[in-house]
Amino acid sequence: MPSVGIITGSGTHALPGVRDGEPVAVTTPFGEATLTRGTYAGVQIVHASRHGPGHARLSNHVNHRATIWALRELGVGAVIGCTACGAVDSSLELGSLVVFDDLHFIANRLPDGSLCTFFVEPGHPQRAHWILHGGPFSPGLRAALIEAATGAGVAVRGGGTYGHVDGPRFNTPSEIAALAACGVVAVSQTAGPETVLCGELELPYALMGFVTDYANEVVPGEPTPVATLIELMGRSPGTFAQVLRGALTAIVDKPPGAAGTVYRFEQG
After folding, report:
1. Domains in the chain, please, with CATH?
2. Has this prediction a pTM greater than 0.90?
């Protein structure tokens, strides 16, 4: 099994416990990405921080294409996304995890407004449609994360629809209500493009979310205090680390498959 890519976001700018970590700058057709290569729980990993030290990049500054392309260039065989998220389903407990099994990302656009795809040139030999059946997330990766969370005693929901929302602002009550009507259980501002771009490159990808707050009016008249959100965000790296330690060995022992089918118009 090649190395495993791990992408972290708000609250987890550096992955705790990485051994022999070294920064690696990768020049891609979509800009430069700097990642960290090292060993985690005895497994070779490549870590990408969406926002960088000090949260330098807001969600609208993240160069998703450069990050995912760089992960592929560095030889990862699977990618795990970790995100702090707001609950749209009021039955989710703050501080719990969701391992998502579906995606709501209707706009399918990158932060700059362009369509979320690597296929930007007509006639490119790798151009393709990503045909989704059974959901956009790798079943094997999802199973490894759920098993690891359960084994670590972490409260986890093993399914639910992730809603990608544009930042950097948070959402209005009517926007959250519309997402709830579509079956979304939690939202954040970065994982939609990661899911699609990994899919186009046939990289197995799974997403786990740590619930830091209830989205607007999910609990009527009782917004989650900002202090609670910040405190929970500070706890998220430790929870992600617990799950990753248990999941990485299983992923190496049983390499997962990618989600869906990528139909390319020019094979070979």
Report:
1. 4-264 (3.40.50.1580)
2. yes
